[in-house]
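To: structure subgroup
Subject: Chain for Friday's discussion

All,

I'm putting the inputs and outputs inline so they're searchable in the archive.
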Amino acid sequence: MANLLEGNILALANKRSKHHMSVERAKIGEEVNNYLGVSKLDEATPAQLEKGLIFIQTALEGEYLGRADSPTSEYVASMERRIEFYEYNMKLIHSHTTAMKRDFEDAIFPTLKTTNPRLYGIARERLHVAHMNSKVY
């Protein structure tokens, strides 16, 4: 029954999403888990799984789980925490790529350039791209 519920969750995610089905699948899975009072579907009893199946089938028929017109304050706070987390990690990646560029230019690139010029170009370009794309504005 858990597999049937998972299949229905995927079907609803496909119905609700145009571009980010995996994001919708995660949201719907979380909604179902909250509805059933479990943290994972593996923890649900057969009676809960049946209840979840009815919940999702009702949603597939368009009677429930429509998109909210405006985000809730809890959702906004959650997104703000995620943005802070990602900004912190991007700053960390940027500082590491800055150190890597400095160290590679002085120590590794000269040797690599003489032994394998093609690999030198690829490595230098990829490091530069990683460094440039990790900037947080």
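Points worth raising on Friday:
Residues 63-68 have pLDDT under 50 and may be disordered.
The CA atoms of residues 94 and 134 lie 5 Å apart.

D.
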